[in-house]
Amino acid sequence: MIDITKNEIVLNDYMSFKNEPDSGSLLFFCGTTRDNNLNKKVKYLEYEAFEEMALIKLNEIRKLAISEWNLNKLEIIHRIGIVDISEISLLIIASSPHRNESFRAIEYVIDELKKSVPIWKKEFYLDGDAWIGSHDNPN
Amino acid sequence: MNIKIKFFGQHKEELSKSELNIDVDSNCNISDLIKILIKGEPKFSKFNSYAVAVNLNYENFEYILKNGDEVAIIPPVSGG
């Protein structure tokens, strides 16, 4: 499953299922909002996506990861809009016969997501804001 | 030819618009389009690092546009 949602990601909503019968590993990764970055106090984040294209790119990443690491399940859920401190912005769930495959797949998904998926993060501080990832940032 | 340009993130904020329609001549590539864009929107000249997608696919700056193409200017991504 791939999803881009404006709703809060609640981990418990995804933890009620049993693992795939032929899996021995079920791994959850949550990216959450940290209250600081580069010595600045962060109040909250706001994510924006080019949803139509982001879904296509996430699907490409998911298909490649499933094939490369023989996963039985791979779910990627990204939140957009305002994400408060400690809340989840990204949830990745990977199920595989052995643990190494899930660990590597999740690392791959995050690395690729940060390279090619059109989603943007803006940090809001006590004294201003800044788009992250840009060399052109005027702030 | 008519080309729709879409803006996101800091570009959208700086230009105060999320999209723009531009008329270009045939054989116009992405580099030409950017030059035309900057003439109409001089504020865009401050941005140097971005990628471009045409009809939801990343393309290079030599890509020759077709009538009706939708060009998305993609600022450096920062999801996760």
Characterise the protein shown here.
The complex is a heterodimer of chains A (139) and B (80). Chain A is an alpha+beta fold and 139 residues long. Chain A has a single domain (2-125), classed as Alpha-Beta Complex (Aldehyde Oxidoreductase, domain 3). In chain A, 27% of the residues lie in helices and 40% in strands. Chain A has helices at 51-69, 99-116, and strands at residues 2-5, 25-32, 36-37, 40-49, 73-79, 81-84, 88-96, 119-125, 128-131. In chain A, the strands form two sheets. In chain A, strands 3, 4, 6, 8 and 9 form a five-stranded antiparallel β-sheet that branches. In chain A, strand 3 and strand 4 (40-49) form a beta hairpin. In chain A, helix 1 (51-69) packs antiparallel against helix 2 (99-116). The longest helix of chain A is centred in the middle third of the chain and has 19 residues, at 51-69. Chain B is of the alpha+beta class and 80 residues long. Chain B has a single domain, classed as Roll (Ubiquitin-like (UB roll)). Chain B has two helices and five strands. In chain B, strands 2-1-5-3-4 form a five-stranded mixed β-sheet, covered by helices on one side. In chain B, strand 3 and strand 4 (57-59) form a beta hairpin. Chain B is globular. Chain B starts with a strand and ends in a 6-residue tail after the last strand. The interface between A and B is medium-sized, with 31 and 21 residues.
Short description:
Chain A is α+β, with helices and mostly antiparallel strands and about 140 residues long. Chain A contains two helices and nine strands.
Query: pLDDT below 50 for ≥5 consecutive residues: which ranges of chain A?
Result: none
In CATH, what is the class of chain B?
Alpha Beta
* Radius of gyration of chain A using CA atoms only: 16 Å
Number of strands of chain A: 9
Span between N and C termini of chain A?
Answer: 37 Å
* CATH-derived architecture of chain B: Roll
Please give the largest β-sheet of chain A: 5 strands, antiparallel
Order of helices and strands of chain B: EHEHEEE
The major beta sheet of chain B can be summarized as: 5 strands, mixed
**Which homologous superfamily in CATH is the superfamily of chain B?**
Beta-grasp domain
Which percent range fits the helix content of chain B? 10-25%
- Oligomeric description of these chains: heterodimer
